[in-house]
Automatic annotation (TrEMBL):
<dbReference type="InterPro" id="IPR036390">
    <property type="entry name" value="WH_DNA-bd_sf"/>
</dbReference>
<dbReference type="InterPro" id="IPR013225">
    <property type="entry name" value="PaaX_C"/>
</dbReference>
<dbReference type="Pfam" id="PF08223">
    <property type="entry name" value="PaaX_C"/>
</dbReference>
<feature type="domain" description="Transcriptional repressor PaaX-like central Cas2-like">
    <location>
        <begin position="79"/>
        <end position="150"/>
    </location>
</feature>
<dbReference type="InterPro" id="IPR048846">
    <property type="entry name" value="PaaX-like_central"/>
</dbReference>
<protein>
    <submittedName>
        <fullName>PaaX family transcriptional regulator</fullName>
    </submittedName>
</protein>
<dbReference type="InterPro" id="IPR036388">
    <property type="entry name" value="WH-like_DNA-bd_sf"/>
</dbReference>
<feature type="domain" description="Transcriptional repressor PaaX-like C-terminal">
    <location>
        <begin position="163"/>
        <end position="244"/>
    </location>
</feature>
<dbReference type="InterPro" id="IPR011965">
    <property type="entry name" value="PaaX_trns_reg"/>
</dbReference>
<dbReference type="Pfam" id="PF20803">
    <property type="entry name" value="PaaX_M"/>
</dbReference>
Length: 259
């Protein structure tokens, strides 16, 4: 089950500003009490993911970054790779160790893989996202970025060392098993209430998003022929399209559910 905190982040991504009373109304009659909603908002504020101004909550840039890796990777899967690699190189002093660890984790979530100790690479141009992270963390002076082609040291043979594709395969296969059960369950229901469908969409996005935080979306030439990613993408789209039809009758919920 998707956590309440992540549910609220996804809701705020779709409706930029909300009062606590609106969020409490959304969860009225569900398993979360008004106090649990307030507690979740307090935790998100402490993490720096949301701000509170004039009784309304909204996402911070950190909260947006936490969620947008999913949308970015959705956009990459059908693009043709031009053969260029994008490298991030850093030399961050020990006094900034915590920021260095945060940067490393952020790069991995964006799909970068570790080529050498302080060198990460990606087949996708994510300069804007990386620069935003660097500016927020105050690390710009310690980092360089480069785009180009390898002229020595063939990278193709190292892909399976840089990214754990077998682990990612397992995540996709787990999603396919879970999604197939969901598809069977939905097919047996005469209908689904708009709010139930909305929270199913949130859980669907959470489960698939967790995979995308680990999948670098490599060009097809680097993937095994039986890679389960495309099948998982199709199942995700099928489930989303099935659920959204139940939400469409409620304009307010539809605003929250549309990507």
């Amino acid at each position: 089950m998707i956590s309440l905190e992540k549910q609220i982040l996804y809701i705020l991504m779709r409706k930029p500003e909300m009062e606590v009373s609106e969020l409490i109304d959304i969860y009225q009659g569900r398993r979360y009490s008004p106090q649990s909603v307030r507690n979740a908002l307090s935790r998100l504020k402490r993490l720096g993911y949301i701000r509170h101004h004039r009784r309304r909550y909204s996402l911070t840039s950190a909260g947006t970054n936490f969620l947008t890796a999913f949308q970015f990777k959705l956009a990459q899967k059908d693009r043709t790779w031009n053969g260029s690699w994008h490298l991030v190189l850093y030399q961050i002093p020990e006094s900034h160790r915590n920021f260095r660890n945060t940067l490393r984790q952020e790069l991995i979530h964006l799909g970068y893989g570790q080529l050498y100790h302080s060198v990460f690479l990606s087949p996708h141009d994510q300069t804007q996202s990386v620069r935003q992270i660097l500016e927020e963390q105050g690390l710009s002076e310690f980092v360089s970025m480069f785009t180009g082609h390898f002229t020595f040291g063939e990278i193709d043979s190292k892909v399976h060392e840089i990214w754990d594709l077998e682990h990612i395969r397992g995540l996709y296969e787990e999603f396919l098993a879970w999604g197939s059960e969901k598809r069977t369950h939905f097919s047996r229901l005469p209908s689904i209430s708009p709010w139930d469908a909305f929270f199913e969409i949130l859980e669907l996005g959470e489960r698939f998003g967790n995979i995308l935080l680990q999948d670098p979306i490599l060009p097809a030439k680097f993937l095994p022929k039986d890679w389960p990613g495309p099948e998982a993408w199709r199942l995700y789209r099928e489930l989303y399209d099935h659920l959204i039809q139940y939400v469409e009758s409620d304009k307010g919920i539809l605003q929250l559910a549309r990507k």
